[in-house]
Amino acid sequence: MQPAPSQAFDGKAFVSTLTTSPGVYRYFNEDGELLYVGKASSLKKRVGSYFLKPRMEPRIAAMVSQIARAEITVTRTEAEALLLESQLIKALKPRYNILLRDDKSYPYIYLSGGEDYPRLAFHRGARNQPGRYFGPFPSAFAVRESLNLMQKLFKVRQCEDSYFRNRSRPCLQYQIGRCTGPCVGLINTEDYRNDVRHVEMFLEGRSSAVIDELVSAMEQASAALNFERAAALRDQVAALRKLHAQNHVQGATTDMDVIACRIESGIACVSVLFFRNGISLGTRDFYPRLPLDAEPADVLAQFIAQYYLDRPVPREIILGEAMADEQLLSEVLAQQSGHAVEIKTRVRGDRAQFLQMAERNAQASLTSRIASRQTLGTRFDDLQNLLGLDEPPRRIECFDISHTRGEATVASCVVFGPEGPEKSHYRRFNIAGITPGDDYAAMHQALTRRFRKVAEGEGARPDVLLIDGGTGQVAQALDVLRELGVTGIEVVGVAKGPGRRAGEETLILAGSNRELHPGPSSPALHLVAAVRDESHRFAISGHRKRREKARERSVLEDVQGVGARRRTALLKAFGGLAGVEAAGVEELMQVKGIDRGLAERIYDALHA
């Protein structure tokens, strides 16, 4: 039972009730906010260290002074406690824990299964479709670069299935030599499957075996006097050898992640180098949220526990700092992955060079981050002065509307804090039930949906609300906040200046009806413009996705009597939906299975 705010938490009495079993403990303040999650091999001993010691580190003392309630969960083993701790930290984000902030899943290359002509594709998200997934890759760029290489080397199709099934002639990719035209039968399934097999071997790291097979095939083609085929294979072998020489890293003989951490000015950077099958897949940097006085070894221990919680684990993890729970982490990761996992901190030779590379990368990224953060801090301070706020804003939200002549209207909400964009808090709102093109109604609907939760006591409240628009859009924001009873938010309209030139925007202060013209040299306006532009980009990308999705759905799907076969027959007969729309009733009747009644229904649906 949670004690009343006036009651002090009796830590010593709580410790006296604890077991010596392993488990997880959680500390809460008087408002019920979770302060900290920790694991222990002995709950009694570990929790007792917070309340029975005469002196504590500043960050520990600051946290203990806020504790109003504590909870424990007993586990069977310390390994179970470590897993549970990592899961709780990632899900609940306690204030005093080191928190890995990574709101994107890793991308993969997907090779579809169960088809005569499988396709290669970029994939992010759940891996539940038939086929194979190769990765993870450190970035979307790395995946797209690899897919581009696959197109050049093996010419396996990458088009969507809906596009592939409705082709009557080969597309541009065939014309420029990046596809073998399986959509129209220009390659048989056996040869295509052989190309797919080479793709799999290459992505598994067996590029040398692929080269050997292609060299053998080239020699056979040459012996059979098929010089055109031999020349094509020769070029493919040359390209593969060049790529193999560029990307193969000497010394990386196994799946391996090399991880380094640097801390400076209260910011931590963890840099990860990825090696798979002897090939470097690049790097990725992380900036975990830190409590006070955190050390690199503490950051790495928490990072590894959280990072590999839901990701594939390599066989080797090379670290720049020794950790107290190194052996325990190895055992937990091995149980999770189903194979042995070595965590190494003392390395020589090539691995030492990789570690130095990761350390240099972490330091360079951290230096850049600190410089960017200082610039951002200056802009937030200037915005405080410009708007006359009591303190610099901690959370800025901006709303924008995007549509094409009223079609597929989408509103965006982006969030910026003192450290920059907080993308995990971005939101899009699909607008419906309004007159197409009515931006005021769209803004009213989006703001109502966003701030209804704030009025109900849920969700974060922004300090500054930016509205991309003039007085009319600002009025909608004020009406919504007034209707919902939400107060204490500075509403600012961002109107384009004369000639729509950057740096000449007008800021409309809703509270006083004043207009500000900070000018192109104002750091505050630079911040406002950056937030507004990000909101605009986010709205446009959402609108395009919604519009494309709507247009992908053929009008023919809504015509009674037109199933998948007849729809395919129509599209093939007329070369696409535009051709079907241009056809008359008599022409539609020429397609097998289309009688006059159905042809008239199709014509009416397309010309309603």
Automatic annotation (TrEMBL):
Name used for this protein in its record: UvrABC system protein C
Single GO term (MF): hydrolase activity
Every UVR domain range: 208-243
SMART domains in the record: GIYc (SM00465)
Family: Belongs to the UvrC family.
Pfam families per UniProt: GIY-YIG, HHH_5, UVR, UvrC_RNaseH, UvrC_RNaseH_dom
UniProt entry keywords in alphabetical sequence: Cytoplasm, DNA damage, DNA excision, DNA repair, Excision nuclease, Hydrolase, SOS response
UniProt domain UvrC family homology region profile: residue ranges: 258-481
Superkingdom of the source species: Bacteria
Organism: Dyella flava
Keyword Ribonucleoprotein on entry: no
Cell compartments where the protein resides: Cytoplasm
Transmembrane segments annotated in the record for this chain: none
Self-association and partners: Interacts with UvrB in an incision complex.
